[in-house]
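Data deposition worksheet. Section B asks for the primary sequence of the deposited chain exactly as it was used as input, without tags or linkers unless they were present during the calculation. Section C holds the resulting structure in token form. Section D is free text for depositor observations; keep each observation to a single sentence. Incomplete worksheets are returned to the depositor.
Section A, Depositor: J.P.
Section B:
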Amino acid sequence: MDDLIFAKVDKYITDLLTPEDKALTDTLDSIEREGIPSISVSAPQGKFLQVMALACNAKKILELGTLAGYSTIWMARTLPQDGKIITVEFDEHHAAVAQKNIDNAGLSSRVDIRRGKALDILPQILTNGEGPFDLIFIDADKQPYKEYFEHALQLSRSGTIIICDNVVRNGEVVNENTTDDRVQGVQRLNKFLSTCNKVTATIIQTVGAKEYDGMAIAIVK
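Section C:
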């Protein structure tokens, strides 16, 4: 088996269960047009986030790492009219493109983009009493993943689902001698999850158009 079959199966799943409408394909087009890294979740992964949001009847969602808004749109579409997703993006250009894509999807009333460093914004969200959130998706820079997760816990309730993307890093996560700070960041998170008594957690390996990686999935006790 190789990357080609993984991509073919991903397309099969997308065509069968996760077709992308114009708002989503426009978002993907904007990523290429605006020179934004092509690191959004895949369509099946976006649908997975939708399923998780529906599973916990999410009315309040927190996302770290907006990029161009692709995953944001998938999740925001599950929200009721009075629901809200706060999504945090450090890069001003990415945030501006994401806002256009969210407007294009007709979701402006449900999406609040916060611009800046997540480690600065997360304490503000806590102080403002904007939690707890029902679903939290972490897909930002990997080095502070453990710190992001600790903040997420403070913004959770019993039953909150916390999902962290890219925690396998093409298998490099098992390399104890890695010098890649992104791998080291997810290693710190994964080790923390193994001892954290506040959640029940696992890691699911993923393959597909986004190659080989994985997601950590935790439920707050």
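Section D:
Residues 54 and 78 are 7 Å apart (CA to CA).
The radius of gyration is 17 Å.
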